[in-house]
Amino acid sequence: MIRARYIGSEIYRRSSYGPKHPLAVPRVSTCTDLCRALGWLPEAAYVEAPMASVADLLRFHTADYVEALQRAEAMQSVSDADRARFRIGADGNPVYREVFRRPAISAGGVMLAAELTLDGGVVHCPGGGTHHGRPDRAAGFCFLNDPVLGLLRWLDLGLDNIVYLDIDAHHGDGVQDAFHDDGRVLTISVHEAGRWPFTGSAGDRAGGAARNFPVPQGCNDSEFRWLMDHAVVRLIEARQPQAIMLQAGADALEEDPLAKLSLSNNAHLAVVAAMKRLAPRLVVLGGGGYNPFAVGRCWAAIWGVLNDAAIPDRLPPPAERVLRALSYSRAAGRNPPEHWFTTLRDAPREGPVRPLVRELAERAFEEGLPA
Ligand SMILES: [Zn+2]
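That is the input. Now the predicted structure with zinc ion docked in place:
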């Protein structure tokens, strides 16, 4: 049994998209600090993510776009032409101090995760998960598409049967489109219906290479588990993939300020446990998530599950201190509930399974199983 590895980077601690941006909050550093405070992250398990080379990035991204990102970082500004063409400094994709280095390190981390799992194993890479990035432009706070680069690395190393599962509140459009019609990678996305980027309808199959589950607002743990048990796990079992990449965005949690789903982090933890059983290689990424307490607790608990660690009912004082040191300027941060400081695991948020959710599960099989 190969020990699970954690790929992180100190760049996430120092870097911000700007004080007013949803990504102003510390996420990866909170997760890393919590894992260390819990005694779950020995030095031997921690790997500092390398920065991807330009040649690595060109496996998916265009040279013009990569050059524009480097130019934006060097100049700390963008020309009108670059903004219009590459959407850098537009649409919530700000020019910030590390606008090239940070996404290049995320990409390097996910590509390394693919390499480290070539002979099997598990990697948690919470800095990855930028699933909206396009070959030639930024989109949805994502400058590069590190999941695509990691999946391509697996393919280039000889794998040909991969599942990409995305449980972020937003559709994993950039990854789905990258593997449109490509039977080697089945992309499965569970996301909030009617939310940006407004793609990923239940009938959207990307030429047979995708399954989409657009869930209604308020989606609870019971509904999410229904989809997993009746559709997602069945799809993956039928396929018997060589490797699974899980984008575990934390914005489908109820506490998230950007989405309107109502999951507890038990939903995420159950998915991680299930994926561990379904393939000999598993890479777990982060993704969205804009409440630093919810994100940090969720992603740290994921690392616990990957290591079969017992999640304590009450956090030990060093871990509690990590959470008490956070500041969160949104309204919810002014009166944070006590369990944000003292627990990792949320209380379950069970509820009725609406007919619409049952229909979503059934529709996944209406044209048979994906190739
Ligand atoms: Zn998201």
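The pocket of zinc ion is lined by residues 168-170, 249, 251, 287-288 (CB under 6 Å).
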